[in-house]
């Protein structure tokens, strides 16, 4: 019983540590690298990439009228809805994550940058 409580406390600390480690304001600065291809905001429009308003929780490849890569179209049913873990894996290396060419060429190798930009995107509902 005591061991179970200890493991639960460790799991909670790790998960909340990840959440607390995120900084949406810092993520907004990281997002500056993404602005040439993506918009956020209530009036966001598709550019080279789809608008990212509401991307956290949105089904992959689902922006109406956007011409996704063949790799994204093929992988979207497997991805399902974007969550923090899936977005982090995608942002690390989009083409590797999709298993084929992605239109997105930017890679965010720095884990902290990925966490922060995802935290920022989560505020863009």
Structure write-up:
The structure is a single chain. This protein has 125 residues and is mainly alpha-helical. It has a single domain (22-122), classed as Cytochrome Bc1 Complex, Chain D, domain 2 (Orthogonal Bundle). It is 51% helix and 0% strand. The chain contains six helices and no strands. It is globular, with a radius of gyration of 16 Å. The relative contact order is 0.19.
Number of strands: 0
- CATH class type: Mainly Alpha
- Give unreliable regions as ranges: 1-20
The gross shape turns out to be globular
The first-to-last residue Cα distance is 41 Å
Backbone structural class: mainly alpha
What's the CATH superfamily, by name? Cytochrome c-like domain
Estimate the mean pLDDT confidence: 87
Sheet with the most strands, sense and barrel status:
none
Which topology does CATH recognise?
Answer: Cytochrome Bc1 Complex, Chain D, domain 2
The percent range for helix content is 40-55%
Rg is 16 Å
Strand content: under 5%
- List the total number of helices: 6
**Which CATH architecture is right?**
Orthogonal Bundle
Give the topology string: H per helix, E per strand.
Answer: HHHHHH
- Domains counted in the coordinates: how many? 1
């Amino acid at each position: 019983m005591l061991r179970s409580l200890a493991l639960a406390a460790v799991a909670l600390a790790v998960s909340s540590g990840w959440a607390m480690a995120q900084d949406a304001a810092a993520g907004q600065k990281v997002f500056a690298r993404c602005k040439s291809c993506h918009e956020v905001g209530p009036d966001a429009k598709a550019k080279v990439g789809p608008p990212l308003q509401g991307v956290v929780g949105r089904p992959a490849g689902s922006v109406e009228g956007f011409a996704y890569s063949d790799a994204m179209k093929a992988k979207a049913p497997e991805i399902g809805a974007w969550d923090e873990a899936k977005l982090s894996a995608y942002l690390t290396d989009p083409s590797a994550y999709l298993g084929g060419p992605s239109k997105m060429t930017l890679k965010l190798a720095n884990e902290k940058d990925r966490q922060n930009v995802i935290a920022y995107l989560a505020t863009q509902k």
